[in-house]
Queue: 2 jobs
Job 1
Amino acid sequence: MIDPKKSCMFASRGNGMVRFHKTSLHRFLAQNQNRFEKNYFEIVMNVFNERFVPFLTGKQELPDADKNDMKKVRFAQTYTSAQITEVWERFFKLIAIHLNDSFELERTKQCNVKSQMTLAPHQHVEEKERNKKRIQCRIP
């Protein structure tokens, strides 16, 4: 049985929260994520960039923030808003690239493991048995 506390991820949609199971999310990404067509990591990072950077540059303020309690942004005086925007855009692009590369690498590993299992399933059983024996020999 799937433990909902461990296997759920939440995403906000409007006023409510939408619940995704990690397995279904992983399955969706495995079927639909493509580095050249639809890169969902890049889409998420672009949306995050569009909504996050205006708060850093001062173009948009928090709705409930009091003017007296607000502190000045540390780097607002020395850097222009264009420089801040450019740095954060690079940062989010870098994150999207690394997430995508990691996902593609893991997908290739999983495909290789599945193909090896179908081509030579007996080898995997033998290898697991050897690993169990090694572990048992190490533990006194």
Note: DSSP finds five helices and two strands in the chain.
Job 2
Amino acid sequence: MVEEEDLPAEVYYGSSNSDAKFLAKMRERERFEEENFTRVSLTKRERLLQKRLERGEFLSTGTRMDHIRKLLESSGEEEEMSFVKLKV
């Protein structure tokens, strides 16, 4: 728990669909590389996604908005929710 805010240090609600697809693609790439003793180069987009995933960032914006909404709901402060209008 974070001492100052009485909130958990990290809250994780699971991966989004795009995260799962990217991870499956990376596992398939790794399997191919191991079977064929070769390296397959990553595209610039794949490198960016891999770095974000390693840092623990969410890949989709919708997931970030859901995460923020759940944090605000769990805080129980309706004042914060009044100015944050999220599309569901």
Note: Residues 17-36 form the longest helix (20 residues).
